Amino acid sequence: MFLINARYLDKDFRFAMGDIQVEQGKIAALGQNLPRNPEDIAVDCQGYTIVPGFVDVHIHGCGGVDTCDGSREAIEDMARFLLPHGVTSFCPTTMTIGKPVIQAALLAAKSVHDQPIPDGAKVVGVNMEGPFISKERKGAQNEADIVAPDFSLFQELYKLSGGLVRLVDVAPEQPGGEDFVKRAKELCTVSIAHTMCDYNQAKASFGWGITHATHLFNAMSGLHHRDPGVVGAVFNDERVRAELICDGQHIHPAVLKTAFQVLGDRAMVVSDSMRANGMPEGSGFDLGGQLVTVTGGKATLADGTIAGSVTNLHQEIKNLVSYGVPLEQAVKSASLIPARAIGLDGEIGSIEPGKAGDLVVLDQALNIVSVWKSWNGETKMLAFGE
Question: How far apart are CA 124 and CA 137, in angstroms?
């Protein structure tokens, strides 16, 4: 199959013109006027822009369901919801919640990973946002289920998932934090999150092996000119990548633009969305056992604490462009950088030969025209627009 006359982002995330050849579910060749046989399928993409499928490594729920529902059906529903929004790969994300609930969520995600569905995004890992966090910076997490960093518990859950956990969060200043980081980093990416760390503590934890920051600016110390905090530590350490929720609610657009300028290829877009994403606004939504109300695109607990988001990566890319972030950088931060954070950048995240044929076709207004997903040795157009 060929997508011809395309404007696409190449492996360096620069715009190029030409054809994209996809064979057996993988990108086979790129270039001008690629040779093809009369029987080959050729889709004319003139006037459109093709970008790699988006990769959401931090998403709790959407479309009325949540990872912690602990069922295969919930993960499937998430996958089907995400694909029309350009997300071709995702990591269902658990909350700080009871161990049996986390276990059920891990098994459900593993089931969909091992037996994927043809009409949804691919489960490429699991993200454990809790329970190894700080009570003082718990945000919308349930304090009753917070536990100290416990590598034995994490190792048990990791094994249960079949090694599918690709991200785990920790407040490294908590008792046992250093030992946890040094051991967990051998299994997956370790992220600083929901933490009381100051600048020096954060820098020390990066030396232990933390290479990721969960929803930068949120649930951590911010950047002050005399107290640089966790944000300052991340800004000044090339070893650490940072998630950014780009819904315009969690971080002011001016700060987002600054963060992208400072972080460059260390910035990644995540949704951190919860089950209310895609649902009518109102009250009565559940997140980790707590009630959430959504008003004006903002999800909050009863005390006003922001409780995840109701956005998606495609909308966040459009937001970033409107804030002045170049489209190339916004897309890279929603595709290759998150893929790199979970160790899958050799398989997904960019348009280059050998990688999965996961593609999103955009019109001039950046609306999604179609989504192409690699599936069972083929690449098929499985979704149309939003």
Answer: 28
Distance CA 206, CA 219 (A): 18
**42 phi and psi angles, rounded to 5 deg:** -130, 120
Task: Check if 40 is active-site.
Answer: no
DSSP summary character for residue 121: P
Question: Which entry of 19, 69, 77, 272 is annotated as an active-site residue?
Answer: 272
User: Where does residue 85 rank: exposed (0-12), middle (13-18), buried (19+ CB within 10 A)?
Assistant: buried
- Helix, strand or coil for residue 96? coil
Write out pLDDT tens, residues 256-277. Answer: 999 999 999 999 999 999 999 9
What DSSP state is assigned to residue 277? Answer: T
Residues whose CB is less than 8 angstroms from the CB of residue 317 and which lie 6 or more positions away in sequence, other chains included: 54, 246, 269, 327, 330, 331, 334, 366
Instruction: Count CB atoms within 10 A of the CB of residue 24.
Output: 11
Averaged pLDDT in 10-residue chunks for the chain of 386 residues = 93 96 94 88 93 98 96 98 97 96 98 96 96 89 91 98 98 97 98 97 98 96 96 98 96 97 98 93 83 87 85 98 98 98 98 96 95 84 57
What does R_g of the chain's alpha carbons equal in angstroms? Answer: 20
pTM for this model (two decimals): 0.96
The CA-based angle 275-72-153, given to 5 degrees, is: 85
Helix (H) or strand (E) holding 299: strand 298-300
CB 376 within 8 A of CB 118: yes
β-sheet with 282-287: strand ranges across: 282-287, 290-295, 298-300
Sign of CA dihedral 67, 69, 70, 71: negative
pLDDT in tens, 297-350: 888 888 888 888 999 999 999 999 999 999 999 999 999 999 999 999 999 999
